[in-house]
Write a structure and sequence with these properties.
Length: 62
């Protein structure tokens, strides 16, 4: 970690809705991928959302 990494301006908030509740959060957490799209969850749902893709979502037996 460098001092510059701590003093850089924050990135703009993500405008991606939560995959669970649909709420837009500036602290969205990446929880998985589906059909080439990155799925995000708000902090409240990040721990409860299933990480993906799961084997059945890929068409793989498991």
């Amino acid at each position: 970690m460098t001092r510059d990494s701590l003093t850089q301006p924050l990135p703009p908030p993500a405008d991606t809705p939560c995959a669970v509740c649909g709420r837009v959060s500036p602290a969205a957490v990446e929880i998985g991928y589906r059909d080439g799209t990155v799925l995000y969850a708000c902090p409240q749902h990040a721990g409860t959302a299933a990480p993906g893709p799961l084997p059945h979502e890929l068409g793989v037996a498991g």
